[in-house]
Amino acid sequence: MTTTETEVFETIRYTADIVLIAVGHVLLIERGWDPFEGMWALPGGHVDVGETSVTAAARELAEETGIFVPVAGLRQVGTFDAPGRDPRGRYVTVAYAATLPQTLAPSAGTDATAARWWPLNDLPELAFDHADILRVAVGSTA
């Protein structure tokens, strides 16, 4: 680097999302605040200090939906890091997926105002890039 070049740094936040599928349905949460307040999204959130992304995915699923899936039951779908995927700034998420043999009754918690199972062939518009994550996850289970 020459003395005329300037380095630019950005804050990068680390999150985990989860795609939980059961009998042709996916579990979604309704967001309780901005960005995308009132829109449907995959359960997920920030990776806490000292936590792995897979542990965060299992924790966020339980906190936001009341459904617990053990870490051993999660498989990594991919890393999603496109600039602009979150209007709050640079967010990198690692997405996980799991499949249940039947739907379980969810109960919304933390930042979710609702949690419900949606048919994969009749989904609402999803927040962030969650439609892309869901497409990749469903493709990886086929």
Short recap of the structure:
By secondary structure, the chain is an alpha+beta fold.
What's the arrangement of secondary structure elements?
Elements: E1 12-22, E2 25-31, E3 40-41, E4 44-46, H1 53-65, E5 75-80, E6 90-100, E7 112-119, H2 130-141
What can you tell me about this protein's structure?
The protein has 142 residues and is an alpha+beta fold. The chain has one domain: Nucleoside Triphosphate Pyrophosphohydrolase (Alpha-Beta Complex), CATH 3.90.79.10. 18% of the residues lie in helices and 34% in strands. The protein has two helices and seven strands, in the order ββββαβββα. The protein has helices at 53-65, 130-141, and strands spanning 12-22, 25-31, 40-41, 44-46, 75-80, 90-100, 112-119. Strands 1, 2, 3, 4, 5, 6 and 7 form a seven-stranded mixed sheet that branches. A hairpin with an 8-residue loop joins strand 2 (25-31) and strand 3 (40-41). It is globular, with a radius of gyration of 16 Å. The protein starts with 11 loop residues before the first strand and ends with a helix. The mean pLDDT is 95.
CATH topology: Nucleoside Triphosphate Pyrophosphohydrolase
Please name the CATH architecture: Alpha-Beta Complex
CATH superfamily: Nucleoside Triphosphate Pyrophosphohydrolase
CATH class: Alpha Beta
- Write down how many β-strands occur, each being a DSSP E stretch of 2 or more residues: 7
Count up the helices: 2
Biggest β-sheet strands, sense, barrel:
7 strands, mixed
Q: Which value, in Å, is the CA radius of gyration?
A: 16 Å
